[in-house]
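Notebook entry, structure prediction.
Reason for the run: the old model in the group folder had no record of what sequence produced it. Starting over properly, with the input documented here first.
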Amino acid sequence: MDLVLHITLQKPPVDIFFGLQKGTGNNCEIVQWQQYNSSDLHFNLTVETKGDQQKDPLPDFKGAFVQGPKGERFIYVVIRGIAGTPAALCNGRMKIPLSGITWEVINNSNAVLETYVPGSGKNGGPNYATVKPFSGWTAGS
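New structure, fully documented this time:
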């Protein structure tokens, strides 16, 4: 079953581009590039759920945007600073965990889930590495 994910990146820093990593290694591309312009950034993607609700305690996920080993899957948001700005050296990735997505959450979601993540870290720069705090995934609209 396909599951639509909607990620809202709240109040990211200025002069930085954010995009989704599609694929892995040398076979990856960055899609949906966006820059903060006074409103939150929104990313939409589709993943495939794997597993059997009767046998598997939690679903697994696959697809072009899914990263990481089984039980620890996540989505990468790529971070790139704009040349010639103070943020030019900002380069890295943010991990959006797929943890917390249960069969119950999927069954009550109409195949759409959303999450809200802080775009800035405590120092005011991008929120690198695994997003903290992470509020989890809820049924979308």
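Summary: The chain has one domain: 2-139.
The old model has been moved to the deprecated folder.
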